[in-house]
Amino acid sequence: MSIPATVPPAAAAPTGELIGARELDALLRSATPPLLLDVRWQLVAARPEDPSHPVGYGDYLEAHLPGAVFVDLGAELAGPPSPEAGRHPLPSPEAFAASVARWGLADGQLAVVYDDQGGLSAARAWWLLRHAGLPVRVLDGGVQAWIAAGGDTEEGPGTPPAPAVPAAPGWGLMPVLDADGAAALAGTGVLLDARAEPRYLGLEEPIDPRAGHIPGAVSAPTAANLGPGRRFRSPDRLRERFAALGVSAEGAPVGAYCGSGVTASHELLALAVAGVSGALYPGSWSQWSNDPARPVATGAGS
Fold first, then answer.
1. Do 18-148 and 179-288 have matching folds?
2. Among 169, 209, 237, 281, which is least packed by CB within 10 angstroms?
3. Would you call 292 a catalytic residue per the annotation?
4. What is the pLDDT of residues 268-280, one digit of tens each?
5. Which residue from 256, 144, 236 is spatially nearest to 192, judged by alpha carbons?
6. Can you give the chain as a three-state secondary structure string?
7. What are the pLDDT digits (tens) for 159-172?
8. pTM of the prediction?
9. Spelled out in words, what is the top-level CATH class assigned to the domain 179-288?
């Protein structure tokens, strides 16, 4: 499981919300190891070889960090989809508590979440665990960074642990926006649109019923949060990025949305690394665009 000492260390990951492969290796060999949660998922993915498997589970079976528990984003990190609520609304507090119990997280134990997409799906688990008041960090660079550092992997299904004292999730610790709140923030603060720019501009819309963005929102694609190796940019670089978008720790309130509230969590993680707190609009464009009463803007600067 341990990373060989002969492997040159990668650049240190920012402290706080993120954890680097070497620091994670040391924690796993400590007296209080974290619980590893594999949150691999893709918005658009081929059907798994076994249709009964959720998206991402095949990759988990092929190779995952030793002892990691697979997390089904669609079933465990979201509630039932609907046009009224969006494609990935927040799960209920009771449903999320049941998921945490299934994963086997112990009271006071750190959860380390990872994926293979630069944290785009792991950030949703990070946000929900923070929302529930549970300690969590994201493996910077994901499974690729672990393997590149010389870390071992294992295959096949894992068995969640059975802690003596399970974690007791709370709820409601992170700021949340509804559609009215998002509309208001776009006028009084900074509302970041985490989708790719063509979707923000209304040039394309492959998923939702209308193309464009929430009037007053600012385009801030999540890809710009990452640098080489799909690792997060440094806190200073992220602060520079968000400052150019009108965001600062001392400035106006900020929120984020995307297509369905998943990659918007990545935006909020990047903001947290930069030292800025923000609110999530979980319904995001999938909710907004399904409501004909909601206005839609296209192009830049609108």
1. yes
2. 209
3. no
4. 999 999 999 999 9
5. 256
6. CCCCCCCCCCCCCCCCCEECHHHHHHHHCCCCCCEEEECCCCCCCCCCCCCCCCCCHHHHHHCECCCCEECCHHHHCCCCCECCCECCCCCCHHHHHHHHHHHCCECCCCEEEECCCCCCCHHHHHHHHHHCCCCEEEECCHHHHHHHCCCCCECCCCCCCCCCCECCCCCCCCCECCHHHHHHHHHHCEEEECCCHHHHHCCCCCCCCCCCECCCCEECCHHHHECHHHCECCHHHHHHHHHHCCCCCCCCCEEEECCCCCHHHHHHHHHHHCCCCCEECCCHHHHHCCCCCCCCECCCCC
7. 999 999 999 999 99
8. 0.93
9. alpha beta
Q: Which of 78, 258, 270, 272 is catalytic?
A: 258
Superfamily of domain 18-148: Rhodanese-like domain (3.40.250.10)
Q: Cβ distance 142 to 117 under 8 Å? A: yes
